[in-house]
Amino acid sequence: MNKVSVLFFPDNLVAHVEPGTSLLRAASYAGVELKSNCGGEGTCGRCLVKVKDGRVKLKGKGNISAKARQAGLVLACQTVVDGNVVIEIPRDSRLDEHKVLLGEKEILVEKDEELAEGYPLQPLCRKFKLSLSAPTLIENASDLTRLQAALRSEVDCNDIHIGLNTLRTLADILRAGDWNVTATVAQLNGCADIVHLEQGHSSRQSFGLAVDIGTTTVVVYLIDLETGMTLGKKGTYNKQARYGDDVITRMIHASEKVDGLQDLHKAVISTINQLIDDLLAQGHVSGDDVHMVMVAGNTTMTHLFLGLTPKYIRLEPYIPLAASTPPVSAADLGLNINQNAFIACFPSVASYVGGDIVSGTLLTNMAKADEIILFIDIGTNGEMVLGNKDWLVTAACSAGPAFEGGGITFGMRAMKGAIEHVVIDPETFEVEVSTIGKMKPMGICGSGLIDCLAKFRETGIIDRAGKMQSDINTPRMREGDDGYEFVLVPGDVTECGKDIVITENDVKNLLRAKGAVYAGIRCLLKAVSLEESAIDKVLIAGGFGNYINIRDAIGIGLLPDLPAEKYVFIGNSSVKGSRLALLSQDAYREAQELGKKMTYIELSAGNEFMEEFVSALFLPHTDMNLFPTVTVVNKA
Ligand code: FES
Prior knowledge:
- This protein is an alpha/beta fold and 636 residues long.
- It has 15 helices and 27 strands.
- It is globular and about 100 Å long.
């Protein structure tokens, strides 16, 4: 069939596709990522584009507002090409409009972050400079036996392997270096694997990558394996987002669509390769010198990264294909580094408590602590671990993507332009907001939403059940398309030119998200017969960016009513834990044990979670005894 061209404007990127291809898919072929929260089902209304020229056909109606249609927009997933076309992509529809915040400087050559206490620097992959004796007629052991013998005392291990590709290079390398050789060796699970050989005593550096594969974003650190220094950090959107916003939609795509698993596998590999290419170029490092990769991701992300089907994760009794996976090579996955490099993944605990949580738990050192620690990672799922050196319990609650901006009219991730702080005058209802990067407001991120909900409660804009109080005296309260809404920022000062509002539906979604997280915490505490007051420290990781107001988070009943000094933010604990395991064999071993040590509590079994959840759907809670420091505001 003759292909047609689809030109995307203003990028000037072209895709050549067969007629009948959706604009969403064509955009992805051209390298333009569109927002597509529903994975192309036509229900989210996010993939809006404008047809500037050429012929298209509508394949379905989809969820598009009359306003958008009048503005000449169409849903890219519901529109197929029928000839050469020119498409304009509005700023609001782009997925990669802004860079992912890494919480620290994006690129740095730093002295170095300390490894966690108790873990000496002993990377998973190291170089050994060896001098072998030349063979003779009398001493005639093979080249490989000679190399293994020389390595044995260095690596303190008898089980030394070599892959066929590396073995093929051995004879010539030994002789070219006059029996001096440099071997790069990965040591995991009690085995040593020769990953790379160089003739003579080489001074080339060896590098590793620490990777966090999140459902929404992917972050990679480039690390010098000899010094432990982090040479660069990069993050971007997970290209899997084109197949759906959340893990369930992606699991369905992987298991029910033709080539669905391959689509998702290739998308995440391409995302990681893009970050690797950028990091290597920026650090002037050759991909051939990258020999080890440590990966943390939730259970579904790990499956998709390795090309394993996640089908049974979402079907009762919710079993992953593998909780622990063997190391693989870069060639197996198509990563743009040394093809013999070793890739290891953190083990998962259960279908919804994955390697990212094991990695975070490793970083927190809570499995060695005397005090009782609660570690919470708040993303699309609220995953949490409670315990100390004697016991660890864990659970995951489906909080929904509200705190990452999903399902909220003007919700967005914590990135430049996102409102992260809100103050409301209790008398005049005037609003002051501050944004990340001090830019014009584009939307509102998790920390801003928590602030907002707390201030709405305190000023009486909503009641304890989250209902908008339509009789308050301010023009900011108005009736919108979906009921009452409150105008946070008028359109004349926003980046998108639209009024940024919080609707009653947004409030309901936030109540459900905060209720799920708090109910999860209550269930974990009940499982070990403890009260909130028994918690000595709360460690918070996740997508809140740099800031979350603890008093507000307690005020809305998201977090337990504990003194603020008990709370500590630890940022992206998943990638930091990956870095730790990459640089410490002890830490890697500990991570393998952690996966087995954590007791998983399935919240969907029994009624307890549902009862706690329903009680937590008020501000802050139906049982005010649980929130003694929160004052109930009654403006009526
Ligand atoms: S409506 Fe097109 S991707 Fe959701």
